[in-house]
Design brief:
This protein is an alpha/beta fold and 316 residues long. It has twelve helices and 14 strands. The strands form three sheets. It has a six-stranded mixed β-sheet, sandwiched between helices. The protein has a five-stranded mixed β-sheet with strand order 12-11-10-13-14, sandwiched between helices. Helix 6 crosses helix 10 and helix 9 crosses helix 10. The relative contact order is 0.13.
Length: 316
């Protein structure tokens, strides 16, 4: 039985899977979690602590890692792979070295010149992306894929090839406004990022920017404070209203930018955490755009499987 360790080692969390290698996708057998790359002083020691029992039982085996473990704060820095890029190119650009008696391979991030002519990068999301793309036909079909998150990625693909992408910092901006800005001080109690979303308030905020394309987000934001002062919005519902405003503006503007460059954008693929994907889906519904949805965890392992299947050929 051939075994392989595959995992996402991000800045905040490590999740490693002991996998059985057979025909088709990797089959996870056991999973361990650990500290993220930014919280570890010695990454090899942390890896040994997490995976040492597997190596003792099964012997040295290949290791495939993705995420911030390949960044400047990680174990070793894996250079970004320029777009256009597909899974075969990704496998050929793996950063390889040996540790704990195991051949280690770290997935590089992706880089591009985005639709606005600016340099852009991603690290970690690429495995989710290639995991979803592994299930499509490698033809000339062009797609727009959104990976929601703190730094959401809007990715243009053709078949299984990533053409380019643009990053939205909407998620981080929202957190900063609520945690440190005037809008957060308008709330009756400190902002709780774990609080559930008030869907009705979210929809009100989303409709505000979707139904009036001339309303720029910087002009709409103050409505959170003014609505609270005028008794039109409760403090508890305000963070959800803000989410609707900001996600609504993000999706509206991303669609408009791609359409302005000749892309039809009749369907958007949403890949990520279920709650965020559902919120983005509500905005797409309001815009009259169809969606396909996929869970980020499942696509991440599928992406690592797609890259692992090409590792040996790429190394030859």
């Amino acid at each position: 039985m051939t075994m392989l360790i595959a995992g996402d080692w991000g800045s905040s969390n490590m999740r490693l899977h002991l996998c059985r290698v057979e025909e088709g996708p990797l089959i996870p057998v056991e999973t361990v979690r650990g500290k993220g790359a930014k919280d570890v002083a010695d990454h090899e020691t942390a890896f040994r602590a997490a995976a040492g029992d597997w190596i003792d039982r099964h012997g040295p085996m290949p290791v495939l890692l993705s995420g911030m473990i390949g960044s400047t704060i990680g174990w070793r820095e894996a250079a970004y792979l320029p777009c256009p890029a597909g899974p075969q190119a990704m496998a050929g650009a793996l950063l390889r070295f040996e540790a704990a008696g195991c051949p280690i391979a770290i997935v590089p991030g992706l880089s591009c010149r985005n639709i606005f002519g600016q340099p852009d990068v991603m690290r970690g999301e690429e495995v989710q992306l290639f995991g979803w793309l592994a299930g499509v036909t490698d033809d000339d079909t062009e797609r727009l894929i959104c990976l929601p998150g703190t730094h959401a990625k809007w990715v243009r693909t053709q078949g299984r090839t990533v053409l380019d992408f643009v990053t939205s910092m909407q998620g981080e901006m929202r957190e900063l406004l609520l945690a440190h800005g005037l809008l957060g001080r308008s709330l009756a109690k400190p902002y709780d990022p774990a609080a559930p979303t008030d869907i009705a308030a979210f929809d009100v905020g989303a409709r505000l920017v979707i139904d009036d394309p001339t309303l720029a987000i910087e002009h709409g934001l103050f409505a959170l404070r003014s609505r609270i002062l005028m008794g039109e919005l409760t403090s508890d519902a305000a963070p959800s209203f803000l989410s609707g405003l900001m996600i609504g503006a993000e999706v509206r503007d991303a669609v408009a930018a791609h359409r302005a460059r000749g892309m039809a954008v009749e369907t958007i693929v949403l890949v990520g955490a279920e709650l965020l994907v559902d919120l983005y889906g509500r905005v797409c519904d309001r815009l009259g755009i169809a969606t396909e949805k996929a869970a980020g965890d499942g696509t991440a392992l599928a992406g690592l499987s797609a890259i692992a299947a090409r590792m040996e050929a790429a190394a030859a």
